[in-house]
Amino acid sequence: MREARRPRTAALGATAALLLGLLSGCSGETGPGRPDRRITVWSQESLPDRIAATEKVIDRFERASGVEVELVGVAEAQMPQLIMSAAASGTLPDVIGAATLGQIWQMHGNELLNTRIPGRVVETLGPGTFDPNALALASDGPTRLAVPSDAWLQLLVYREDRFAERGLPPPDTYARMLDAARRLTGDGRSGISAATDPADVFTSQSFESLALANDCRLVDGGEVALRSTPCEEAFSVYDRLARDYGAPGTQSVDSTRATYFSGSSSMVIWSSFVLDEMAGLRSDALPSCPECEDDPGFLAENSGVVTAVRGPDAKEPAQFGEVTSWAVTRTAEEDASRRFVEYMMGAGYQDWFGMAPEGKIPVRRGTAAEPDRYLRAWRSSELGVDRRRPIDEVYPPELLDRLVDGVQRMRRWGITEGEGALVGAANGELPVSKAIGAMTGGQLSPADAAAQADEEVTDLRTSLDRPTDAPGSP
């Protein structure tokens, strides 16, 4: 959801306020190493409740450090354009919070990152206190691109009560998903809610979660591989799920959730950010199924969660998700930025991931003295906004275990193959989302959709290989 979290359409003040932040609040007047007691932080945790929670942590940091922090909430969909505009005008912020893997790799490709500070922060805090997979995804070999902070996972949520009525097993394979979707479609209900919006990265993420399950790779053997047999199968299955058994019309990040919450579909592909809303703890996204009227927690109690799916061409199930990080820009004031990131990963860490624990699984597991300190704190963190309940009171320990394990097993297209810059560019141009939209709209066959996506990603890769005049990175 713009990197598959909760939709960020309510980002602080929208575009006008964001551009005002660019012009008046950024750190273009400072530079690497200059002593400055003021830094600007952009955060994609930009919903009002999360901005308020972040400001409380920042207040404590300011009192402890003497550094003044200007916090600017940025809508995730606007971030790529704003980064490039700020780079061109010399007004980059010092730090970006909740930066996605695609964003940090794209910034790295454009030489916009300071990579010294993340390396120092990780060494200070202890590399062994971090999840190794998260560190690897946010690194270019030995170079730390950013400091990984937390993660969310893409989930397949299903109506466990309806599956039990039909004697259906959990939908953890392509075959089981298709069979369940077919058998649960009818009487005004769709079998599944799956994104088809060609203009949203959420569609690409939803597809990637199923494509990885069939060992479909963005790049294989140095070449774009979306025309491969595993990828064509993934396109075909997604088409059947979304077009034959899905809700009618173009399905977006909001409509997929709403369809499941209303009881009109029996499965939904969504991120772990759905867990608090599914429990009836957020008033602006309440479940509306008939059973939910008397019991707002009905869906949480009657939904099963699949964290990893396997396709016929894969040897094992695959887990898709996102690691979000603290990124430091090339023009940042280094000392204040370093101190800020260390604080947010130390004294302020529990409050940071505690603002939304369902989608902020800590990737720093603990400290050298207490190796599981943050994971223990996360398990008792409170879900919700308008109502709050500890996550371990709402969901069973087995699910929490699978969420933590999922971070360790998370896979992402292209990044482990050294194609992080391509991933970032694809997140901006959305070639896969466009192909999915055309396919599920009936304009393309699955094979043609795979071919179109392959061609557009190949063109993107070629454009990235051309020399640029970007200034050097620290």
> Cα distance, first to last residue?
31 Å
Name the shape in a single word. Answer: globular
Q: Helical content, roughly?
A: 40-55%
- Approximately how much beta-strand content do the residues carry? 5-15%
Low-confidence stretches: 1-31, 469-474
| Individual helix count | 21
- Helix and strand content put the structural class at alpha+beta
Mean pLDDT: 91
Number of strands: 15
Query: What can be said about the biggest beta sheet?
Result: 9 strands, mixed
Radius of gyration of CA atoms, rounded to a whole number: 22 Å
List its salient traits.
45% helix, single chain, disordered N terminus, two-stranded antiparallel ribbon, nine-stranded mixed β-sheet, alpha+beta, globular, 21 helices, 474 residues
In a few lines, what is going on in this structure?
With 474 residues, this protein is α+β, with helices and mostly antiparallel strands. It has helices spanning 14-25, 48-65, 79-89, 101-109, 116-125, 132-137, 160-166, 174-183, 201-213, 229-244, 253-261, 274-278, 298-302, 334-344, 349-354, 373-379, 391-394, 397-409, 420-429, 431-440, 446-465, and strands at 38-43, 68-73, 95-99, 139-140, 143-144, 147-159, 219-220, 223-224, 267-271, 303-306, 319-328, 361-362, 382-383, 389-390, 410-411. It is built from 21 helices and 15 strands.
List the topology elements:
Layout: H1 14-25, E1 38-43, H2 48-65, E2 68-73, H3 79-89, E3 95-99, H4 101-109, H5 116-125, H6 132-137, E4 139-140, E5 143-144, E6 147-159, H7 160-166, H8 174-183, H9 201-213, E7 219-220, E8 223-224, H10 229-244, H11 253-261, E9 267-271, H12 274-278, H13 298-302, E10 303-306, E11 319-328, H14 334-344, H15 349-354, E12 361-362, H16 373-379, E13 382-383, E14 389-390, H17 391-394, H18 397-409, E15 410-411, H19 420-429, H20 431-440, H21 446-465
